[in-house]
Amino acid sequence: MAKDASDPIARLRTFNLLAGALHLVQAIVVLVLTNGRSLPVTAAFGNGPPGQPLGPLVLEKLFSYRIGYAVFTFLLLSSVFHFLVASPWGFPRYRSELANTRNRFRWVEYSLSSSVMVVVIAGVVGITDIAALLGLAGVNASMIFFGWLMETTNKPGPTANWAPFRFGSFAGIIPWIAIVFYTVGAATSDATADAGTGEGVPGFVYGIFVSLFLFFNCFAITQLLQYRAKGKWADYLRGERSYIVLSLLAKSALAWQIFANVLLPNV
Q: Which residues, in sequence order, are bridge partners of residue 45?
């Protein structure tokens, strides 16, 4: 205990164990209690020779995936990486990373888990085309890897090169533009009007959009403050703690908003 009190990185080991446990418990609860609701993945194939007027697009359902399994996946990924950096193998490497003001474990995990999250949010608002989903996942992962570059090519402070941050911010906004387009379009499209509903996406989807959009931006703000390195943010570990908390809150918010509205066994 005395060692933990004097060693902030050792305290982060405990913090990672706690975060990993919380993610794991939520993942297990979702897996055990979820229903069989699924989302389709489709492809719209052209019908006619290139350069000529096309006939109606042929929409094919390629496969479906269980929403509960996708939620379980991004929660489990976070749990695994938290336990990894706290493990006997991972902790010396984690300590070395933090001593060099970086954490590549974090960026690998985010590139996987947040991309799954973006695909789930896209599917909930009606983006099902496989090319679109791959593009959204790819551009989201690119945003994360720009965060990796920001850390591995810079040191916090006035000499930091902000190009990776700017490029990552540009990449990161693209999925949200697509999600907004489909969310708004569902309420205003002729297809919705013809169906006689006029409702568009369910109200809880707006809650998911607002909460997750804010959380995703908080990650960018954390890096911005971390690399300006002013006041309390001059301590790189403050940013590391913030990332852990934000990751837990963002994944929990998405998981339970979807669970309460889509995945309950009786829904």
A: 58
162 token code pair: 């902000």
| Confidence band of 1 (pLDDT split at 50, 70, 90) | very low
Could you tell me if 203 and 183 are in contact, meaning their C-beta atoms sit under 8 angstroms apart?
A: no
Distance between CA 267 and CA 257 in Å, rounded? 13
H or E element that contains 63 = strand 58-66
Query: What is the spatial distance between Cα 147 and Cα 114, in angstroms, rounded to a whole number?
Result: 13
| Residue listed under structure tokens 């919705």 | 192
Residue range 136-165, pLDDT digits in tens: 999 999 999 999 999 999 999 999 999 999
Q: Which residues contact 162 (CB under 8 A, 6 or more apart)?
A: 227
Look at residues 159, 145, 165, 163 and name the one whose alpha carbon lies nearest to residue 104: 145
Count the neighbouring beta carbons within 10 Å of the beta carbon of residue 263. 20
Distance CA(225)–CA(231), nearest Å, equals 10
Report which of 99, 15, 23 is spatially closest to residue 255, judged by C-alpha positions: 23
Count CA atoms closer than 13 A to 138's CA, side-chain side: 6
Q: Which amino acid is at 42?
A: T
Residue 6, pLDDT above cutoff 90: no
Q: What is the pTM of this model?
A: 0.91
d(CA 113, CA 79) in angstroms, rounded, equals 10
